[in-house]
Specification:
With 158 residues, this protein is α+β, with helices and mostly antiparallel strands. It has a single domain, classed as Histidine kinase-like ATPase, C-terminal domain (Heat Shock Protein 90, 2-Layer Sandwich). Strand 2 and strand 3 form a beta hairpin. Helix 1 packs antiparallel against helix 2 and helix 2 packs antiparallel against helix 3. It starts with 7 loop residues before the first strand and ends in a 24-residue tail after the last strand. The protein binds zinc ion (ZN). Zinc ion binds next to loops. The site of zinc ion has 5 residues, from loops. Keywords: ATP-binding, Kinase, Nucleotide-binding, Serine/threonine-protein kinase, Transferase. It comes from Kineococcus halophytocola. One of its GO terms (molecular function) is ATP binding. InterPro entries: Anti-sigma-factor_SerPK, HATPase_C_sf, HATPase_dom.
């Protein structure tokens, strides 16, 4: 259990260093009250999503990690391309490209949010965000202590 934290954000360059930067960023900002198994899953998912964003989308590529609820971690990868994430099956020899399939397998919940492609100040802003939530799939019943925390993100797949 942990107190939900403010999101940590990193902008990564659109090149092959981004996967390594993403893993390093997660290790630095990981809240250690979560299972280390989730950190391993998070690294895998972040690497895949960032690789997808770098290969198929474009700048700006932003990463975000945030504790959202008891035992829940929200990972977000934003990029400059409004098209949905690429879901083609990768060549077996290819190290990346399985992003969306892995996200479906490993995350508890995931989705895509679209944004206004141009920021209010005219600078380029991310066009979409692929987010996924990690945590226990079958939470044990927790004694109620008066009211549920509302989901600040309000985002649900479809
Ligand atoms: Zn936490």
């Amino acid at each position: 259990m942990c107190v939900p934290t403010p999101a940590s954000t990193l902008v990564v360059p659109v090149d092959l260093s981004s996967g390594r930067l993403a893993r390093h960023f997660l290790e630095e900002h990981w809240c250690h009250q979560h299972s280390s198994a989730h950190l391993d899953q998070a690294k895998l998912l972040f690497t895949e999503l960032v690789t997808n964003a770098v290969r198929h989308a474009g700048p700006p590529v932003l990463l975000q990690v945030e504790c959202v609820e008891t035992d829940g971690v929200l990972l977000s990868v934003s990029d400059g391309d409004p098209s949905p994430p690429v879901t083609t099956v990768a060549d077996p020899a290819d190290l990346g490209g399985r992003g969306v399939h892995l996200v479906e397998l490993l995350s508890r919940d995931w989705g895509v949010r679209h944004h206004d492609p141009v920021g209010a100040d005219g600078e380029s802003a991310p066009a979409k965000t692929v987010w996924c939530r990690l945590g226990r799939r079958d939470p044990e019943p927790v004694p109620q202590r008066g009211g549920h925390r509302t989901d600040r993100h309000g985002a649900r797949p479809l």
